[in-house]
Structure formats: structure tokens, C-alpha cells
Amino acid sequence: MPKYLIIDSKGVVKPLDLDDLDSHAAIKGDFRTFIETEELGRAAKGEPPHIQIMRQLELIDYEPASDVGHFRFYPKGALVKELLEDYVTSIAVDLIGAMRIETPLMYRLSQKDIAEQAAKFLEKDYRIKLSKDKELILRFAGDFGLFSTMKNAQMSKRQLPVRVFELSPSFRLEKRGETVGLRRLRAFTMPDIHCFCADYEQGKEEFARITKHYDRLIEGLGIQYLLVFRVVEEYYEQTKDLLVGLAKDLKKPILIELLPEMSHYWNVKNEFQFVDAVEGSGQLSTVQLDVSDAERYGITYVNEAGEEVGCIIVHTSISSLERLIYGLLESAAKRGLQGQLPMLPIWLSPVQTIVIPVADRHVKHATKIADELRANNVRAIVDDRGKTVGWKVRNAGKQWIPFVVVIGDKELESDTFPVTIREQSTKKKARTKSMNPNDLIKIIQKVSEEKPFSQLSLPKNISMWPIFI
């Protein structure tokens, strides 16, 4: 039976009895919900709303011609995924300082080290049998090719930690009943970072550094997370300073599960856990201290005495891109339940501004405004369909479009126009403000500062859009 501890945001460590959660003031809200569902086994309350939302917004859908847990991405969904890919890549390469590589998707199970690691994954893998004696495995993370690459790499102690990044399409044969929308899939894209460290102390420093980067990344997306640690009991004392320091630095309580023995390659790991709108949970980022894979794969560095020494490896994943989208959509759904307007961050909104002409005679001017916005890195479209203005405005709201511009006769003679602004507020009501194109451009540029940008690949005029759902 595992033991549990809790570290409050001031760094005070206390034992935790899961049957007596009321005695701990820090365990409330989502933190308590997570413990009750994930640790005590209480079921979630139905289907998470992101499944309906991802179809409502025409982002993502199930792919019936593929396996369970494999998805198709429509143009708007592909854009959101592309922007997240660019964002996490900039975090990994520019902020954390990792080198980017790319490795194959399939590996031979005749490789002893790969077979050993696959065996620890409880048969949640896709296998391809080519012949009686030849079987391949689809990777369930980026480890296989990365470790094979690093086995051949030459590193010296002064170069450590060496950090390596890969966006790795990965496959896990989860049980059919466990695949739930984007919360748990069988095919996903993992931004993996592995840091090769000289010893346990350097590994702990790297662990703390990356955990703090991931805190800023997840919070920056507007996703509220919980921090959970799993620690092998014999390593707890030499890791306690790391745990207490992170609780104080991040100003968050931390749940710790003490494991009686090592059953994985890691002895310490954290989980950035998210509780969705139906009280289910999904792990986002994770950081793990690996004390065994370097020996298994023969990954070494040369120390000051010229000797080859095994590394300590810090495994980290920012989160699969698909699960980040799950977190974003579920966070928006939770805000909607609290009386706020659900929306994506403006820099991730597939359409940032929609320009609505009142009549056909206003289409030319509406298009001119949209073109000016698009020339300044704003994703703007024109709703030139033969519908009423009221219908178009309501539809824009259903699509969570942040800025809605209406162009009528008055706007033909003016440099300004009314903009309905969708904001996360305590009231389910957008506000309207008069602006000119430069005003709107500055607002969008400011909230999107230092974030990646790409234009939506759909045509500028909605009348030219196919309907996918």
C-alpha cells in the first residue's frame, strides 16, 4: 500500500491519510477532486465536453477509417496544432536550450534494450509482424531512437547537461474503453526533451529548472494544473530538498506518493495533472529522474579522469499536443460553467476577427478591412454568406471568435467601426467598442506578443468554405 505526503505552498511536509482529506486545508477544489478520482478511484461524471466542442468548432473529429483513438484534424484544428507545435519547439530550443533531432517510428524487438523497455510498458504497444522471426514495434515515446542516437554520441563532463528535443509521433495501444476524446488517445504527438546529466545532484537541478519552465508554459496557456510527485521511498530523503523547494518556488501544494520499490526506469517523477469539466483527470507535462536507462542503453560521458561514466537522464515531456488541446477546451468549458465566456487564447484562435457586411454593397469595404488586418498578422475573414447580420453574429459567438466587426452604410463613410469583443469575464456578455483597423491590430498584436503566428489555410470568404461537420 503506497504512502502519501503533502507539501503545502510554504514547504511544510505532512503525512496524508486519503481517508481523512478534511484535515488538510490545502486539499480543496480541483486538488481534492483529483485525489478522489485518480487515487481513490471515483468515476468521472460522464463524457468530457471537449468532445462536443472540438466538433462544434470544427477543429478535430474521430477518424472512422482508422483505429480507435486516432483523429482527423480539419483546417482550423490543424492550425491550432501547428501553433502549439511552434510554441513548444521555441520553449524547448530557445528557452531550455535543447538540440532538435528526428528519429524513426518503428524499431526491432530483436534489440535487447528495446525489448526490455517495451516489456516494462505493460504491452500497451502496437506491433507489426513482418515474418516469423522479425517483429517491429511502433514507438510509444521518443526514447528508442533518441537513446540509440545518444549511445553513439561522445560527451565530456564539461558539456553536460546535454539536452535533446524531438517532436515524436507516438502510439500506445490503450484499452478501448479507456480512450476518451483527446484525453487519452492511441496516436499522439509528444514534444520530448531528454537531458543527460553527470550525476544525481545535477539531475535534480535540471529537474527543478525544467519543472519551473513547464509551470510558466502551462499557466501561460490559461490551464490551471495540480502538481503530483511519485517517489521511490528509498530515494525520498535525498530528493526532499528538491520537492520542498519546488512547492515554495511555485507556491503550490504538492501531493507525493511514496512507492515501496522501483518498477519503472525512474525513481522520481512529477505530473502536471489537469481536472476537466466532468471531474476526470489527464496528465499534461511530466519530468522524470531516470537512474537505469543509461546503463541499459550504454549512454556514457567522459569524466575528468578520462573514464567513461553512465549518465543520469532527466526525461521530460511538455505534454502531447493533443492533450494540450484537451486542456485548453476543457478549461474553456469550465469557465463557461462558471458564467464566463468560453474561448481559446487569442493567439490560438483559428479566426481572430470576423468582418460581417450588412448587405452585398458592403462586402467590398469589409474585404478591404480584412485584407488590412491580414497584412498585419491578424487571422481575419469575411462572412459574405446570404444570412442575416443577427444570424452571423450569433454564429461567430458559437465559434468563439474574439473580435466581430459589422460593416454597414455608416462604416462606409468612416475610418472606425463597432467591434464586439469576446472576453473571459464574469458575465456571459461581450462588450462593443468603436475602433479603427490600427486599434484592433495593436490589441491583437499585444496579446499575441512572442507567440507564433500562421494564417488559416481556409479561404478568406466563408462562402467558399466547405462544411466538414
Quick summary of this structure?
The strands form five sheets. The chain has a ten-stranded mixed beta sheet with strand order 2-1-12-11-13-14-17-10-9-5.
List how many beta strands DSSP finds. Answer: 22
Termini separation (Å)?
Answer: 48 Å
Largest sheet data: 10 strands, mixed
Q: What's the domain count?
A: 2
The CATH superfamily of the largest domain appears as Bira Bifunctional Protein, Domain 2
Which structural class best describes the helix and strand composition?
Answer: alpha+beta
The DSSP helix count reads 13
Might you state the CATH topology name of the largest domain? BirA Bifunctional Protein, domain 2
Mean pLDDT: 92
| Shape field | globular
Please bin the fraction of helical residues.
25-40%
Which sequence of strands runs across the widest sheet?
Answer: 2-1-12-11-13-14-17-10-9-5
CATH class of the largest domain: Alpha Beta
CATH architecture classification of the largest domain = 2-Layer Sandwich
Low-confidence stretches: none
Radius of gyration: 25 Å
Structure, explained:
- The protein has 469 residues and is of the alpha+beta class.
- The protein folds into two domains: 3-336, 2-Layer Sandwich (BirA Bifunctional Protein, domain 2), CATH 3.30.930; 346-464, Anticodon-binding domain (Rossmann fold, 3-Layer(aba) Sandwich).
- The chain is 32% helix and 25% strand.
- The chain contains 13 helices and 22 strands.
- Helix 7 links the parallel strand 11 and strand 12 (254-259).
